[in-house]
Amino acid sequence: MNALVMAPDTLIIAYTVSLLAAFSGLGLYSHFLRRRFEPTPTEDRIFRCSTCAFVYTDDADVDRSRCPQCGTVNESIQF
Question: What sections of 1-79 are H helices per DSSP?
Fold first, then answer.
């Protein structure tokens, strides 16, 4: 009745490998779950008004845009 006898070093290696596999699986699951809920990048350009300092966005094909608050025409900014 000595069917499932394993050496202690084999048990330790199996335990360590199974824990590493479980943590890797949880890490991948967390990464894909977080990635699914992150906002997608937009193609819009970002503008800051030189008069009232209002920050707003406009379409990607627009080089200069009128401020929705004060009406000043502004160029896009880069971060």
Answer: 8-37
